[in-house]
Amino acid sequence: MESKITKKDLHNMAIRSMAEQCCFSFERMQAVGFCYGMTKCFRKIHGDNNKEMAEAMANNMDFINTEPHMAAILQGLIVSMEERGQERSLIHGLKTGLFGPLAGLGDAIWWYTAMPIIASICCSLASQNSVLGPILYILFWAVTAVVSRIWFVNLGYKAGVSSIKFIGDNAGALTKAAGILGVMVVGGLIPSYVSFAFPETLVVAGSVSIQGIFDSIMPNILPLGFVFLLYWLFKKKNVNTIKLILLVIAISILLSFLGIM
Amino acid sequence: MQITLIQGLLIALVVFICAADKHMETFMWFRPLVVAFFTGIILGDISLGLKAGAIAELSYLGLLTVGGTVPPDPLFAGLMTTVLAYTTGCDVNTALGLAVPFALIGQWIGTGTNTFYAGFLPSIDRDVAEGNEKGLEKKMYIGWFLYSFLFAVAAFLSVYAFQSGISAFVNAFPEWLVHGFEVAGGLMPAVGLALLLVVMLKKENVAFLLAGFVIMVIANCANILPVAIIAGCIAFVGFNRDIQIAKLQESATASGEGEFEDGI
Lengths: 261, 264
Description:
The structure holds two protein chains of two kinds.
Chain A: H1 7-16, H2 31-46, H3 50-58, H4 68-83, H5 88-127, H6 132-193, E1 203-204, E2 208-209, H7 210-217, H8 221-236, H9 241-257
Antiparallel strand pairs in A: 1-2
Helix pairs in contact in A: 1-2, 1-6, 2-3, 2-4, 4-5, 4-6, 5-6
Chain B: H1 5-24, H2 32-43, H3 46-59, H4 74-88, H5 92-98, H6 100-116, H7 121-129, H8 133-161, H9 163-171, H10 175-200, H11 206-219, H12 225-263
Helix pairs in contact in B: 1-2, 1-8, 2-3, 2-4, 3-4, 3-5, 3-10, 4-5, 4-6, 5-10, 6-8, 7-8
């Protein structure tokens, strides 16, 4: 059977896939943008048959929430299944089953690993007053945004159900590996970017500097302790993000007012 | 320093573009590092934009849109950290703390539109039922435009219209209060990192966090790349091991079933 979907259509879908998160609503999350990515291909498959077109679109208009890069894999897969005229309930079941694991994997790779690493490299350039910082940042994300989506759309379209299931099954091991990478990088970011030190003039028992005591235990132990304090407040005490930020500001102002920071 | 009308309009335009990207989360132009850089160019102080962007980027690192929650807005944080440092002449650390209320404005816009777009769905569903993809596309574009437009208007008001009021307010602060915000600026990255850890940290991972921390303390290098490479090696080894274990388990269960059949 000759394929109706050409290479150009797939590239076009990769570009449209960038709008996957548009019109995000609390009711069905990414449904509108997800469906939008595939409408051109659906039209090409079904021609003027509006009834088929309506059913294909409606099949993708319910709740979906996945990671924007990863959505391209699903879109490629759905279009290939739609083209081969497979059961819509099967397509729907696969979509519902896969968007969760893909979201976990995508978040771990893009947001928790790639973002901290590239951000910290570019921020250290920027804080040394180099325009390379933001420019490198823009370039990195522009290239990955385009290349990953073209790759993922093709992967979803060509690899077929079994391979995508393989990714879904191994998402656990991949997520875990990305987790190790991400956590270690965050550990490294703590001493470089959190500045929490008492002034040298703050002394106890005559001439012993308080900061000197902490430094002799372990340099940067205060930033590490502070991050864990916030972690504990958020995780165990359910303090929300805004309260956490306001708390940090309040503590800082208090320390400044008392003249110990 | 004053922000001119032209500068205010240019900033609104940049915010419109960056907010359009924020709606998709595709090119990361809504991240503070990029927004502050563009703002710095418009204000004619690129070095300020770089400094403000670097500190705001790290502070808002962990504040990500995950699972549909809307965090304090990184776009406004990057924009207002730069603008407040420029108009009030304060340190970027101080400006970062002062920018928090504006980041909340961005957050409210996001929560508002996410709620509002649910109202689009019935009419989009009607288009879908007719097989009319053009209707869906048009409504999506309207929603997208509306979001960016709201951001641009909010940015113009904060940056240009209310600038003298804001800077007079800040300039009335006593010394200890300004310094307090500066201290807060140094501590704020801890919020972002702590929030990252809330999602990422598991019992089996804690060792790697501490290892990364200690390597960075003793290596004392300018950026995180060396730690990232070591971490990549460890992650690779771990991944291979997990795959091997999974394979072994599979073959073990397969042969186990075989023995059972033989037993019968």
